[in-house]
Amino acid sequence: MKIRILLVDDHKILREGICSLIKEYADMEVIGEAGEGARAIDLAKELHPDIVIMDISMPDMNGIEATRRILSDNPATRVIALSMHYDKQFVSEIFKAGASGYLIKDSAFDELEQAVRIVMNGKTYVNPQIASLLVESLVNHPPLPSPKSFALLTDREREVLQLITEGKSTKQIAADLHVSAKTVESHRRQVMGKLNIRTVAELTKYAIREGLTSV
């Protein structure tokens, strides 16, 4: 039986490149592609892939949020993050969201193929460079207690937070989420109240720190 893969990245040329390479393996197939998080969630519900190869930095809904929602609906699916970020915060947040693997985008395709097979066997895969950085960070900078504030936000509040920090207006956010402007304003007030943040600039710093956006 073939390993069924859903490929999620907002760069079409990268998706096409990975698809062409996956075709070289008789036991793997790409069953769907998405260029944004919301579309990835819909496809995962429809197609039930074995593996989702997930970009972290995407507009409107990042890969961390998309991973949370995909795995909430499809707990048997496994997610491998494919990112350009070496930042330990992004690595930490994508694994907290339930991912089973993390690769850097400049990795060789052979490493991605290896990661798919390892993750399919129920194990976790981390790019060696990332693993070294994480070990060094743990040795030289012991982790502080995890911030509690991120857990206070609902899925919709995190979604609104990302859209705000990407510079979208209340009207644009309302149209994207199919809600009223008043609802968006209500979410914004709730987010700022829960996080004790007063300005959009502070919100943006918070979102970057928490891995919600790389703006």
User: What proportion strand?
Assistant: 5-15%
CATH topology of the largest domain: Rossmann fold
What name goes with the CATH superfamily of the largest domain? Response regulator
Integer tally of domains:
2
Average pLDDT for all residues = 86
Secondary structure tally, helices: 11
Helix content: 40-55%
What would you call the structural class? alpha/beta
- Largest sheet, spatial ordering of strands: 2-1-3-4-5-6
- Named at the architecture level, the CATH assignment of the largest domain is 3-Layer(aba) Sandwich
Q: How far apart are the termini?
A: 40 Å
Quick structural summary:
It is built from eleven helices and six strands. By secondary structure, the protein is an alpha/beta fold. The chain folds into two domains: 138 residues, 3-Layer(aba) Sandwich (Rossmann fold); 61 residues, Arc Repressor Mutant, subunit A, CATH 1.10.10.10.
Q: Could you explain how this protein is built, in words?
A:
This protein has 215 residues and is of the alpha/beta class. The chain has 2 domains: 3-140, 3-Layer(aba) Sandwich (Rossmann fold), CATH 3.40.50; 149-209, Orthogonal Bundle (Arc Repressor Mutant, subunit A). Helix content is 53%, strand content 14%. The chain has a 6-stranded parallel sheet, sandwiched between helices. Strand 3 (51-55), helix 3 and strand 4 (78-83) form a beta-alpha-beta unit. It is globular. The mean pLDDT is 86.
